Every structure is written in structure tokens, then in C-alpha cells.
């Protein structure tokens, strides 16, 4: 079974039902959860140890002939969904100030209709990233660390997908290499992810990240891609919390945001010809970066086959 199919509660339940000969296995898991002798109701480390113990107990008692990673993840997903409403208030109470400050900062910046350009990257102002905003905005509805990780990674993947689509659009217009795209730098994604986080206006993003890192450390440790993405989210959150309005780039919206990538390229190319080296600005450098990226996308020597292009740099 594909491990990607168990990154949701429905997928986990389906995997457990097909893996067990006991048709009442979900009821047995719930019985174990509510009959467990918990060492503490308030100490997070003790709770984590108890939940890990429940997962191991269920595996040995109800899945003796089948022990694999998918099984453990599936049981864990069900257990955390069942215990979540009792567990999450402890974390939200611990980080209420951080959550509130981040939410209010995102709400304020969202009303200002910020764009990636105002965070130092005017390259992708022509893209909206609506699908990523929608995906991230439902993070609080998921209960297990596994599902929350999946939501964060899916949001990140959607940003890359929209960037790739933009580059493919350019390539299809200006090159015969329609199935190849250049590698996208992770650093270029950070300003975009900042905008996506701001537009999502999550109430408990700080608590969610702590919850994931604290209770899913084993998943993070064994997956470099997930660890990299979570580190980028942390970077983004800290940047949002510390950025001052006076530090936002001004004049970055000289490029209309309703243009397609080809129209954006035409405007940037014409503006670049008007700039002199003596009057170079950060915004100008950003525009040159976009022209450079588009040029690379249509230069034969810089093409990377689509099926081997690395998402993580």
C-alpha cells in the first residue's frame, strides 16, 4: 500500500481495517486509549510516552503478524485523533501569546494586501497562490501530527506546482523544450510562503508547529524533506513576527499582479532597459532576477528534465 494514502484519518482507518482480522479493531483501539493508566494529564513528555505506549500495545495485541511503518503511522493517526481535544488545549495554553501575536500580525498584513515583492522578492507578483492559501487555511481542522504535516507539505508542494506551471507556460511559448524546467531555489519560495501564511490567518500556527515537532519527532527525524519544510516554516514565522511595516519594500507593486508570466516578462524587460547601473535598486535587482530566471527557462543548456528536477535544493 502506498504510504501517501495513510496521511489522512480516512486512509489510516482503511489501512487498519484491511490489515486486521478483527472487524472491531477501531473499538479495541479506543478501549485501550480510555482504559490506559496515564502517568500525567498535564505533563507533555509523560503524555507523549503514554501515547507511544498505546501505539505499541495496540500493535502487539491486535496486529501480531503484521508490524510495519505504515501500521504504526495508521494507529498513531487514530490515537491522536481520539485524544486531540483533550491534548491540544495544553499546548495552546502554553503558546497563547505567540499564537495571538502571529494571528494579529497576519491579519494586519493581510489587510494591507501584501505580496511576495514586499518581502524582498518581486519576481513572482504575477502569481496568486490561491490553492496554497486554501490548503494551509484548514490546518487547524486536522488532529493528528501526521495529518498536519501532510497539510504543511501539501501547501509547500502547491507553491512549487504553481511556480512550475508558470515556467512551463513560458517555455511552451518561447521554446520547444516543453517538458523540461529549471530548478527553483528554496530561498525564492520563502517570501511566497510568507504571503501564503499571512493570507491564511491561522489562529494557532505556533501551537501547531510545536505540536508537530514534539509529538512527531520520529517522523521528522527519518525524513529529510519534511524536516527541511518544517525548518522553512519556522523561518517564515519568525520573519513575519519580527518584520516591521517600515521595512516592507515600497514600489514593488509597479508590476501589475493580474498579468500572466509572458506579459510580466515583457514589462520587466522594457523596464530593465531603462535602468542604469548608477541607479540600481533592490527592486530592480528583483526584476532582473525574474528576467534571468525566464531566460534560463528558455536556454537549452540550462534545462533540467522534469522527472529528475529536485524539489528540495
Brief characterization of the structure:
This protein has helices at residues 9-19, 25-35, 44-62, 69-94, 96-111, 130-137, 145-174, 186-200, 205-215, 217-221, 224-242, 261-274, 282-297, and strands at 180-181, 304-305. The protein is mainly α and 313 residues long.
Structural class, judged by helices and strands? mainly alpha
Q: Helical percent range? A: 55-70%
Q: What would CATH call the homologous superfamily of the largest domain? A: VPS9 domain
The sequence of SSEs as H and E is HHHHHHHEHHHHHHE
CATH topology of the largest domain: Glutathione S-transferase Yfyf (Class Pi), Chain A, domain 2
Q: Based on the structure given, which CATH architecture of the largest domain is correct?
A: Up-down Bundle
- What does the radius of gyration come to? 23 Å
Strand order of the largest sheet: 1-2
**H/I helix tally:** 13
Runs with pLDDT <50, length 5+?
Answer: 251-265, 271-287, 293-313
Terminal CA distance: 28 Å
The average pLDDT value, as a whole number, equals 78
Strand content: under 5%
Shape: globular
Number of strands: 2
CATH class of the largest domain reads Mainly Alpha
